[in-house]
């Protein structure tokens, strides 16, 4: 769990020491670094995974099942609206926020989720950003990023995803993150409000709070003792269990690559991040996403 720009060196050191490794998203800011880590893990017979916990969220698993069952027909486009409180870049990650941006740090979750839900291949991306609040506070990065990613389905038809993401929400908002995902198909649509989980807390002297007890929370178990539960925990628990199975010889890194958010699988969202970053520098020009064989 490190700043984006430190992932490569530290993960490479762990893999070099023979350690199975779980890293927070993004895997790395660049595709060359991600490919190097993927190759290093494979050469050393190790398992590397990215903590893409949205793959474990029941609402997203429901969406995946609905898409696979043809409930909305062929997916046509997706819209992602994602924002975080300004305390993230101005306080929590102030020391390194200027070395990242909101798309690379946060929207990559939904890039990976679209890849996971559809298995469509990204073809090209374009993006523009807005600067202002963070620059005024001495943090040289985008307030918001607005990106379009074009994907290609197995039948060569096109799927489009649009992202509007920021990390300058007021710190008095009712949740740390406001997240909405819409997927439209030829025969239906899926709307996922991943902030409003139907649990609200209102207290005297405090702003209203939209609670998501399904991500990571201490909740009482049947015996009355608190347990740390949620899909965020399940993501990490799955990695630890997988490592135990690897050590017991009942699975292999290659087998896990086929069904987990492995380094190899993370090459796709990393390639999209790289293309979006390039487009931001080029003022919104279309940039081809590198082909991934994973």
Detailed description of the structure:
- With 294 residues, the chain is α+β, with helices and mostly antiparallel strands.
- It has 9 helices and 13 strands.
- The strands form 4 sheets. It has a 7-stranded mixed beta sheet. The protein has a two-stranded parallel sheet with strand order 1-2.
- α3 packs across α5.
- The relative contact order is 0.19.
Which helices and strands, and how do they pair?
Blueprint lengths: L6 H10 L4 E3 L7 H13 L4 E3 L7 H11 L6 E11 L1 H6 L9 H17 L2 E10 L2 H4 L7 E9 L5 E12 L7 E9 L2 E6 L5 E3 L7 E3 L5 E4 L5 E4 L1 H18 L4 H5 L9 H15 L5 E2 L6
Parallel strand pairs: 1-2, 3-6
Antiparallel strand pairs: 3-7, 4-5, 4-13, 5-6, 7-8, 9-10, 11-12
Helix pairs in contact: 1-2, 3-5, 5-9
List keywords for this structure.
294 residues, alpha+beta, two-stranded parallel sheet, 9 helices, 13 strands
Q: Concise description?
A:
This protein is an alpha+beta fold.
Helical/strand content category: alpha+beta
Radius of gyration: 19 Å
Q: Compute the separation of the termini in Å.
A: 24 Å
H/E topology pattern: HEHEHEHHEHEEEEEEEEHHHE
Largest sheet: 7 strands, mixed
Biggest sheet strand order reads 8-7-3-6-5-4-13
Count, helices? 9
Catalogue the unreliable spans: none
Which assembly state applies to the chains in this document?
single chain
Average pLDDT for all residues: 96
Fraction in beta strands: 25-35%
Shape by Cα distribution: globular
The number of distinct β-strands equals 13
Helical content band: 25-40%
């Amino acid at each position: 769990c490190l700043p984006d720009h430190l992932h490569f060196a530290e993960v490479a050191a762990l893999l070099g020491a023979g350690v199975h490794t779980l890293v927070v998203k993004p895997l790395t800011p660049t595709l060359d670094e991600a490919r190097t880590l993927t190759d290093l893990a494979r050469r050393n017979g190790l398992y590397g995974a990215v903590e893409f916990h949205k793959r474990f969220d029941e609402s997203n698993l429901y969406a995946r099942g609905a898409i696979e069952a043809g409930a909305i027909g062929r997916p046509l486009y997706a819209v992602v609206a994602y924002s975080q409180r300004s305390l993230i870049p101005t306080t929590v990650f102030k020391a390194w926020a200027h070395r990242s941006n909101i798309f690379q740090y946060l929207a990559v979750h939904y890039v990976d989720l679209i890849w996971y839900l559809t298995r469509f291949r990204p073809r090209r991306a374009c993006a523009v950003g807005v600067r202002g609040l963070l620059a005024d506070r001495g943090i040289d990065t985008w307030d918001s990023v607005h990106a379009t990613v074009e994907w290609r389905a197995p039948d060569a038809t096109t799927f489009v995803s649009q992202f509007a993401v920021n990390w300058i929400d007021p710190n008095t908002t009712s949740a740390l993150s406001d997240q909405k995902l819409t997927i439209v198909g030829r025969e239906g649509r899926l709307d996922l409000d991943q902030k409003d989980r139907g649990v609200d807390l209102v207290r005297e002297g405090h702003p209203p709070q939209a609670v998501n007890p399904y991500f990571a929370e201490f909740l009482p178990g049947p015996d009355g003792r608190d347990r740390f539960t949620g899909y965020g925990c399940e993501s990490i628990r799955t990695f630890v269990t997988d490592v135990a199975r690897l050590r017991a010889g009942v699975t292999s890194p290659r087998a896990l690559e086929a069904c987990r958010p492995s380094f190899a699988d993370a090459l796709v969202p990393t390639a999209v991040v790289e293309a979006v970053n390039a487009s931001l520098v080029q003022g919104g020009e279309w940039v081809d996403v590198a082909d991934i064989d994973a």
